Amino acid sequence: MARHNGLDTPRSKGRTLRPNYDPETFGRLSESFARFLGTARFLVYMTVFVATWVIWNTVAPTNMRWDDYPFIFLTLILSLQASYAAPLILLAQNRQADRDRIQSNEDRGQNERNIADTEYLTRELASLRSALGDVATRDFMRSELSDLVEELEKKLSAQPKPNTD
Known about the structure:
- The structure is a single chain.
- By secondary structure, the protein is mostly helical.
- The chain has one domain (23-154).
- Helix content is 72%, strand content 0%.
- The chain contains 4 helices and no strands.
- The protein has helices at residues 23-37, 40-59, 72-134, 138-158.
- Helix 1 crosses helix 3.
- It starts with 22 loop residues before the first helix and ends in a 7-residue tail after the last helix.
């Protein structure tokens, strides 16, 4: 019996020369790197690094210098760092924009549910007010009963009293 590979069986993962990476992990890494680039600690580290580089390559003995003035190698390193930093920062911004869009959609949905709930409660309150208009209150019943008592007293006092002789 020959076995065939159809759509119902998953493909086995073959070897490939392309690097395999997890986009989510790479995105988290780029965000943490972008956050670090925006800190005072990074500025202090870069300032110390550049100052040390410049001072060493200026005052050190000639045979111990590796990058004489105009510090071409330092410029190359800083350009390389900037060329990687910019896309990583953009990637982090895109991920933040995606999160903001999702949060905005969730907020919009929550607001719509809140509005629907408020409208429902408003209709219920209106129906309760309408129903209360049909219900006799205690004060209304007292006034009606006192009117009936007064009316009965008038009728009783207006009737002739029977003779008991």
